[in-house]
Amino acid sequence: MKTRIRLVGVAAALAAFALPVHAQVEIQWWHSMGAALGEWVNDLANEFNASQKDYKVVPVFKGTYDQSMTAAIAAFRAGNAPHILQVFEVGTATMMASKGAIVPVGQVMKDSGLKFDPAAYVPAVAGYYTAPNGQMLSLPFNSSTTIFYYNKDAFKAAGLDPEKAPGTWPEVALAAAKLKASGHKCPFTTSWQSWTQLESFSAWHNTLFATKNNGFGGTDTRLAINTPLHVRHIENLANMAKQGLFVYKGRSNAPDATFPSGECAMYTGSSALYGNVSKNAKFAYGMAPLPYYPDVTGAPQNTVIGGASLWVMSGKKPAEYKGVATFFNYLSSPEVQAKSHQRTGYLPITKAAFELTEKSGFYKKNPGTDVAVTQMIRKTTDKSRGIRLGNMVQIRTVIDEEMEQVWSGKKQPKEALEAAMQRGNELLERFEKANKS
């Protein structure tokens, strides 16, 4: 009797195992979003996972953009790359050249059978990640641009109009002098000095940063940052640094904390700092377009894209690519996009998300949050479409090194810019030779 019961139990267990089990397809997503933005990425994955049962997106923080890109290259060579890799905009040319390592997002979406219309995306954003043949290579994700932040309380204390941001660089210098006179130790600073003070600065003034339409016209491009306009701007910043009106606070986004903390009163940086500012600033603040030089014909034009896009790595199974496409379709929905834009300060990547945000009254309730969008949706020119150079990560490091020589008074602006050009052009030549085909 006991043996029979045991056999019945075994049979039942085997029958249970024989039942079809619906296994979720796991999608690995490597990203570089930390702190509050890391929470946003985790929420996106969790909300998508809860919305359906077929796929599970697993977000993995892999350090800075540089670190995650390096890790992904090593993982690809070892045969265990993630399905999705977040790559910052300056890595675009490198990813485009890595044809065997990536699958164009346009192809992934087409193969999935899901509706995908590149025309639905904001042109200035989509165009940056699109190949000359019109195929979208990566999915715009956290697209940002450079804007101007200022501390209204500090302006008021300095006798400045708190409702009027400096619109020109001469006005920035005058405001900085008044802020310093009122006791402010850091009137103005910037993050990402190459992006804000040379790359976006060039596009904003409808001036080339590099030849061949900033690299869009071919890999035989060279830097063009020694024009009288570029030299004049760096000279003005150098003079402000000597007077304590501009205080250099480090490379990349290291200076970000100096604005919401109240340490620095004026700041040029990413529109995506908005999430941090709105959450942590204990003072009234304003957001405004980048300053410009009013005597430059064609200025202001438009700023260039920052942030990152999502690239699909090669060598995965069809079911996994279907999961990636389903996730991308979710991320691109107007509701998800509008919510992300309003939460982070990143641009809405689709026109529908922008319209949805506008209709909701968000821009009226939060003045300045539309600045990044209006700077980017203007009609671009061949000089302002964006900057797509090979070895751009290393070029930015070179520019950082040379600009630091200027801020410390060890080099003259023209000398430093020409040194940055020479060193940067060597890097561009290397990239050109490596990608002759």
Structure description:
The protein is of the alpha/beta class and 437 residues long. Helix content is 47%, strand content 12%. Strands 1, 2, 3, 4, 5 and 10 form a 6-stranded mixed beta sheet that branches. It is globular. Residues 13-20 have low confidence and may be disordered.
Provide the fold topology.
Blueprint: H1 2-18, E1 25-31, H2 35-51, E2 55-61, H3 65-77, E3 84-88, H4 92-97, E4 102-103, H5 105-112, H6 123-126, E5 139-144, E6 146-151, H7 152-157, H8 169-181, E7 188-190, H9 193-204, H10 211-214, H11 228-242, E8 266-270, H12 274-280, E9 285-288, E10 306-313, H13 318-331, H14 334-344, H15 351-359, H16 362-365, H17 371-376, H18 392-407, H19 413-434
Parallel strand pairs: 1-2, 1-3, 7-8
Antiparallel strand pairs: 3-10, 4-10, 5-10, 6-8, 6-9
Helix pairs in contact: 5-13, 14-15, 18-19
